[in-house]
Each structure stands twice: as C-alpha cells, then as structure tokens.
C-alpha cells in the first residue's frame, strides 16, 4: 500500500498494526476487520475495506491521476489478470512457504481469527511455487517492459512485494532470470519504493 | 462465466475445454493459456485473458448495461473485496479439499502445467475452510440482501459457484445457516442460473 500511495502521490493517515504481537486479533481490530488481516482502509462513512485489490481500486477511482490499473478495458483486464497471478502464485505462495514453517506461527498457517495447523509439505510446496512464479515472470518480462504490458501498474507492485517477501524464505531472483532481475532493478529505483 | 454472461444479457461464442480428458494440457490450449486454466477470453486482437475477475471486468467495461460490479467507487471496491473473499475462502477452498483427495487428480493438486502432489492434510483443511466460509457468508447475509450489499453482483456469482462446487466434496449449506440458505434459494431462482 505504501508503494501504491506513493505512486499515486496521495497521502493518507496510516496506523501501523503490531502484527508481531498479535494486535490483529484484538477486539478493537476485529471490530474493524473480523478477518484480522491488513491492509484495511477506512472510508469517509466509517465503513472499512479489506483486501488489497479492493483498497487499491477504491483509491484508483477516487484519485484517477497517475493510473495504476491501465485505462481502456483490455489494459485494465490485463492488469487485473497479472495482479491476480502475482498475488496467487507470488505473495500467497511465499506466505504458504513462510507461515507453514516459521516458529511463532504454529497454529497460524493461514491468516484469520481461527487459525490452522502448519503443514510441513505445504511449506515445501510454497517454495517450489515461488521459484516457478519467478521463472514465469521472467518469461513474461522477456516480452514486455512491465508485468501487465507497456506501463507500470499495480501488478508490478504486487510482484515487487512478492519478491521482497520471498527474502523471508531465503529465495532471491535466480541468476538465470535475467529479465526479472533487470525489471526488479528498474522498479526498485522508482522513488515510490523507498517511500 | 455462464451465469455472468446471462446476467449481462450478452452472448459470446464459447468452446468447451475437455478438462476431464486433460485437453487443458494440450499444446493447442497451452498456446492460448500457458497456465492451462479455464476460463479464457479471446479478445478482438487475438490476445487472451485468463483469470475470472479479469474476464468479468473486461465484459463489464465493454457491456456496461446491467452492472455486476456496482457503480460508485465504494460499491465497486466492496464488490471486489467480497469477490476476492468468496474466491479465496470459497472456490479455492473447495478446490483445495477436492483436488488433494480426488482419485484421478494425483499429482494435480493445483491447476497448471507442472503439477503438485496431493497433500491429505490439505484436503481436510479445505473442508474446514469451506464450512467456515459458509458460516461467514451466513453472518454477512444476516445484514445485507446480497453478498456485496444491496445489489446482486459478481460476488454473488462467485459465492454461488463455490456453494455448488462444494457439492463435489459433499458439503451443503448447514441448517444453522438460514440466511445463506435463503439467499441461495433467491439467487438460484434467477433465470441466469439455469442459463
């Protein structure tokens, strides 16, 4: 969300939720988001949105300058498609690898109030998926300058988050993925990424 | 997609992919969608879209009549949020339960060309997640007539797909989920659902 807001050049008051100490499970936070996940956006009417894609789309509609979802129907659809793939095969795959093995997350292999036991085989599967995702993105970036096509979009932000998050499971962009590595250097230089 | 197109009152030539016999892994289909998933939409320029959310959004923009994503930014964001939740906790959770146990899907626990071994614990976790998802949707539908708010939307279609798909793992809406059951009866009566 930080990178997204910086790219849109908008500034919204933020509150950091102390995930490490389980603040997302507190009664106060549950009243805001019963699913106990971040990010959450509070709207003017006091209601709340969860799910990154929903929050980003809301901000895109409210602040149309510097579009991050493309503009015509085909572009927008391509952004949604690649964003979904980067989320599913990137971010969620890292989470699968990380949450099913990390000490301190026993019984918390999925986000949410109810908890799920860790599954060792799933931690391993997550690592495989992340590596395959990187190879797929490398192939994609051999053909287009940005993930969803000619322009930087929210799909690039999701991919960037996935790759940075992969550091937590000690996976870096492999040497053979030269296109992905070049893309990463390019997007990591954008001012938004140090926001 | 069938229900979505019927609600939009649009008609597009469709081709059935023989998933049971593995047509999605054929060279012909891989050239269309290297991820070997359905649905896929072919655009006028010959390019292809995968991922249901991307295809539905493209059709929404091209055929704005009978909106299924809401209209103002907050409505649209709420539709995207609930659609993501129904997909993740509904459709994908059923897939997790089904694909990790079904005979004939050994080595195919996730969609895609590369395959993943079945994990028995995951089949069980999937069932738990589906049951929790139904309870969450029941709670939601105690407060709103449709999943994303006052109007029928693509989130209702995704929820409907999840519940019908849950029949494959022998899970029905439990009796205690009266709001969800009433909603199901209501949406199942729409002409689109028999399209």
Task: Describe the model.
The structure is a homodimer of 195-residue chains. By secondary structure, chain A is mainly α. Chain A folds into two domains: 2-62, 3-Layer(aba) Sandwich (Glutaredoxin), CATH 3.40.30.10; 73-190, Glutathione S-transferase Yfyf (Class Pi), Chain A, domain 2 (Up-down Bundle), CATH 1.20.1050.10. In chain A, 50% of the residues lie in helices and 3% in strands. Chain A contains seven helices and two strands. Chain A has a two-stranded antiparallel ribbon. In chain A, α4 packs antiparallel against α5, α4 (73-99) runs parallel beside α6 and α5 (120-141) crosses α7 (178-188). The longest helix of chain A has 27 residues, at 73-99. Chain A binds chain B through residues 34-35, 43, 45, 47, 49-51, 53-55, 57-58, 61-62, 72-74, 76-78, 80-81, 84-85, 110, 114, 116-117, 119, 121-122, 125, 128-129, 132, 136, and chain B through 34-35, 43, 45, 47, 49-51, 53-55, 57-58, 61-62, 72-74, 76-78, 80-81, 84-85, 110, 114, 116-117, 119, 121-122, 125, 128-129, 132, 136.
């Amino acid at each position: 969300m930080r990178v997204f807001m910086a790219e849109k050049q908008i500034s919204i008051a933020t509150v950091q939720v102390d995930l490490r100490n389980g603040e997302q499970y507190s009664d106060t936070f549950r009243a805001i988001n019963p699913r106990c996940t971040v990010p959450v956006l509070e709207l003017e009417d006091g209601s709340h949105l969860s799910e990154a894609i929903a929050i980003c789309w809301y901000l895109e509609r409210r602040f149309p300058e510097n579009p991050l979802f493309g503009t015509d129907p085909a572009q927008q659809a391509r952004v949604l498609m690649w964003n979904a793939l980067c989320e599913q095969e990137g971010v969620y795959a890292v989470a699968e690898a990380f949450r099913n093995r990390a000490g301190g997350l026993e019984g918390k292999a999925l986000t949410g109030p109810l908890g799920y036991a860790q599954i060792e085989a799933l931690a391993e599967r997550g690592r495989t998926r992340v590596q395959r995702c990187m190879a797929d993105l490398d192939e994609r970036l051999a053909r287009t300058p940005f993930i969803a096509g000619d322009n930087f979009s929210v799909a690039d932000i999701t991919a960037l988050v996935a790759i940075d998050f992969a550091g937590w499971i000690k996976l870096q962009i492999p040497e053979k993925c030269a296109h992905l590595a070049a893309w990463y250097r390019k997007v990591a230089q954008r001012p938004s990424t140090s926001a």
